[in-house]
Amino acid sequence: MPAGEAPRGRPPTSHERQSGQPWDASYRDGPAPWDIDEPQPAVVRLAEAEAFAGPVLDAGCGTGDNGLYLAARGLPVVGIDVAETAVAIANRRAADHGLDATFTVGDALDLRPLGRQFRTVLDCGLFHTFDATERRVYVASLAGVVEPGATVHILCFSDVGPAPGPHPVSRAELAQPFASDARWQVVAIEPETLRTRFSDASPAWSATVRRARG
Ligand SMILES: C[S@@+](CC[C@H](N)C(=O)[O-])C[C@H]1O[C@@H](n2cnc3c(N)ncnc32)[C@H](O)[C@@H]1O
Which portions of the sequence form the region Disordered (predicted)? Predict the structure, then answer.
């Protein structure tokens, strides 16, 4: 990282190198731009369509807006994030509401320490923070923690339309890291929107990826 503070115990991600700040810094001085204090409407739409089965991994969980919503719907949830401050907030919120959700500090690029398997992964806003090399590592990391037949839902800013988010991803870039492992099937990549504190509807993708049963 060119300046600022280095993250503890892991190499900085491409985003941290670019910004010169660890992810945790985003959470220290009030809400981050993506911290909307409620679940993403796109996550609510998925949940109402019964797209989640527990246990759910919320990868890059932040302060838990989405994971806590899924836990409140009765799903066991584990969240992971590199930002200690966000994880502490998420755990406090889970305890305050008596929800079956555990949030842990960890790196989605190496999920092995979780030591368990998930039936659904939610990635809301993490994939688009990674560069192409990290995305390949991330997808391999996911392969180690999903049950056969599991589903991965990725919500990320897209390159479609005006004023996309800060890290727009093309449809091809979204599918690409899954292409080298035949046990992944990209079932759908549909246009969606993501809400931030500055925009009600930034252009996004909702990708559904399935892990083979065999
Ligand atoms: C745009 S925020 C989205 C947070 C949350 N999912 C939401 O929708 O509010 C991206 C999150 O990914 C986390 N993150 C970035 N790199 C990570 C990594 N390698 N492993 C785990 N979390 C990471 C950041 O700390 C941040 O909380």
Answer: 1-37
Asked whether residue 3 is assigned to any structural domain, the reply reads: no
Residue 162 neighbours by CB under 8 Å, 6+ apart: none
Residue ID of nearest Cα to ligand 1 atom 4: 62
Distance from C-alpha of 20 to C-alpha of 117, rounded to nearest angstrom? 34
CA 24–ligand 1 middle distance (angstroms):
10
Domain extent, residue 115, equals: 14-211
pLDDT tens profile 194-214: 999 988 999 999 999 999 997
**Does 9 map to a domain?**
no
From residue 197, give the alpha-carbon distance in Å to each of 27, 33, 35, 169, 193: 14, 5, 7, 20, 13
pLDDT tens, residue by residue, 117-172: 999 999 999 999 999 999 999 999 999 999 999 999 999 999 997 766 678 999 99
Number of domains in the chain: 1
Distance, CA of 212 to CA of 182 (rounded, Å): 8
Pocket test for ligand 1, best of 16, 19, 23 (most atoms within 8 A of CB): 23
| Distance separating alpha carbons of residues 182 and 198, to the nearest angstrom | 39
CATH number of the domain bearing residue 202: 3.40.50.150
In a domain? residue 44:
yes
183: CA distance to ligand 1 center in Å? Answer: 26
| Residue 78 maps to a domain | yes
